[in-house]
Amino acid sequence: MSVFALCAGSLLTLLLIGRMLQLRELFLSQSLTLWDVVCLFAYLSPFFLLLLIPIACMLAIFLTFLRMGTDLESVALRASGVSLYQMLPAPLVLCLLCTLAASGVSFWGLSWGMENFRATVLDLARTKTQLVLQPGVFNHDFPGLTVYAQQADPEKGQLHTVFVQDRTRENITATILAPTGTVHTDAAKGEIVFRLQNGKIYRQEDSGLSVVGFGSYQVRMDLSRLLSGYDLGETKPKEMSWGRLHDLEQLPTTAAIDAGNFLRKVRVEIQKRMALPAACIVLGLFALPMAASFGGLNRHWGMMLALGFFLFYYTLLSLGLSLGETGVLPPVVGLWLPNALFMGVGLAGLVQAARERSFDIVGRLAHLNFLRWRRRGGEGGDAA
To answer: Which residue ranges make up each domain of the chain?
Structure first.
């Protein structure tokens, strides 16, 4: 269990450090406390743990049995009459515990973390918006927008005598004047919305200048442009709760915009939420015969080898995700095929290892090197 905790903690730390570098502009642009940073990383952790728990389970079992083979502990156990099947309860218990943990993350933890992370980032955006909307000041903190309000109430989001210059569209500059307006954050779409009333739009294009009056006009800006490093667009299937995914799957195809592509992503996400927890058992059983085949291998090389196996598994899983989202393969086939393949290889290898007929790759390589050395030595002796 300690090996599992060490592997999971190390990999999670590395991934969070990488994400911190992606969100560095968010951290630098906001007055965040240490507690805010800890909370943000805690909310992001379930997103990574769904993938890290299976690999940590595989690494823990692989390295443990590899070390037992290197220290000849497994040989001593077999000599005393303990078969490989009698050693199975401990790794199986670990696999089941990891499966339960991954299921909790998949069905509840993932949506909880992403919802809270999104809400925290939106609150930071709202705070920054309140700070930059100072009365009587031309604010340039919104990319592509210049905002001026003679009077502003940041708490209520009310603006009076408003000037907005919109340069978000290429080759078009729109200058908007309005006596009143409001500003608020659209949490569902991840946007800041400036709603102006009873004003005029002076639009300058290549063809000339046009003036349009309006009763109500909205200027929307994606918050991801204000808080660089995180996409705050509409909620994606990978951020949704398990219940929400099932509700969307039951919708008629005509009930959603771009329904075909969206519903395929929903179905793929549902299968992924089930396939990854099951991968804990699959990869755990796969690691046992692999450790027997590579007995005597150095621990560092063993870890690289296990990571290589998981990279192959993840490549197959990613291919299944892509083919499922494009409609080439049914999501059930694309997402469960890697599990079926690794389970088949793992069970076949487990039977061979229990019969002590596993393919000793390290021993074979050492034997080949010895024969090569003898041949060179013999040739040298003949020449002498």
So the answer is: 2-125+240-371, 133-226
Residues with Cβ within 8 Å of 344's Cβ and at least 6 positions away in sequence, in order, are none
Tens-place pLDDT, residues 6-52? 888 888 888 888 777 766 666 665 566 778 778 888 898 898 899 89
pLDDT in tens, 356-370: 665 554 444 444 555
Question: How many CB atoms within 10 Å of residue 358?
Answer: 21
Cα–Cα distance, 313 to 38 (Å, whole number): 31
CB 100 within 8 A of CB 43: no
Q: Is residue 256 exposed (0-12), middle (13-18) or buried (19+ Cβ within 10 Å)?
A: middle
